Structures are given as C-alpha cells and as structure tokens.
Amino acid sequence: MLRGGMLKRFLVGISCLVVILTVQSPLCAIPPASFFQDAPDTLMLFAHQADDPVRIVQASFGADNELLDARLENSSHKKIQNYRLGWAVVKKDDVRLGKGTSAADVPENVDSSTAFNIPGQGNVAKDDLSKHPTGIVFYIAELQFQDGSHWQADVKKIKKEATDLLK
C-alpha cells in the first residue's frame, strides 16, 4: 500500500506522463488555425454608388453576417417612400446579383430627404452565404420616391464595383 507522500509522488508522476504523451500525440500537432481553413471568411461590404440618388454609407453586420442596420445618404433630397436592398455575391470571377423579395417602407416620421437609418431585413443573403463566397456587396437596388417616381441601380455598374472591391 502507498502512504501519503508516496501516493502524491505517484499521482504527480502519472500526471506528468499524461501531459508528455498528450503533447507528443499527432492529434495535438495540428495547428489550431487548420480547423478553420474549411470556413473562409466572407467579406461583407456595401457599394459606394457615388452617382446614385441614395447609397449605403455605413452598415452593421452580426456574427452570422446578418445585415443588422444601415445608414443611407440621400443626395437627391427627395423624400423616399420605399426601397429595396440588393446584393452582389462574388466568388472567384463569378458575380451574381440578388435583391429582397419586397420593398421596405420608410416610416412616415423618418426624414428620408437627407441621411437616415434603416433596420436590417434579416439575413437576406443567407442562401448565398452558405456557398462561401469571397464577399457580398450590399447596395440600394430600387427606390420609390414620395412623388411616385422610381429609380433602379445600374446592375452593370454594381457588378463592376463588386468585382473591383473584392480583387
């Protein structure tokens, strides 16, 4: 039978042996970064759209790349009734465009004639994110002004800008 002091030395020896075997194990030799190589980061950006009447100037994204909210700048100074978000999904040399299924109304009490905030519309690009693209570029796809006039983004310009942003 082992006594107090001998028992402690025996347990310390066993603990050291376990630590040495664990460190020498081939499983422990895998660098931690390699566990995440199969899940590359997707850049979440927004298009500049300098010549367009309304553009996203700031946006917040959640941990699952959900668009939480955005700040829009209205250079036309015409009050906006509703808008539709769009996005360009870039994967290598392929750029695919998508847009929300419906337009979002701007509340009556919001002054949309200058800069204003919009809430996120959920994870509108969720299906595109599951394909692990290089990046997703959000933009304002369509507008309806309070006077009844409509505006749409130039998709050729958006595709070029998305490609340039993610080079």
Structural topology:
Elements lengths: L3 H21 L18 E4 L7 E8 L5 E8 L5 E12 L2 E6 L4 E2 L9 E5 L6 H4 L5 E11 L4 E3 L2 H11 L2
Parallel strand pairs: 1-8
Antiparallel strand pairs: 2-3, 3-7, 4-5, 4-6, 4-8, 8-9
How would you describe this protein?
The protein is of the alpha+beta class and 167 residues long. It has two domains: 4-30; 43-165, no CATH class. It is 22% helix and 35% strand. Strands 1, 4, 5, 6, 8 and 9 form a six-stranded mixed beta sheet that branches. A three-stranded antiparallel beta sheet has the order 2-3-7, with no helix packed on it. It is elongated, with a radius of gyration of 26 Å. The termini are far apart.
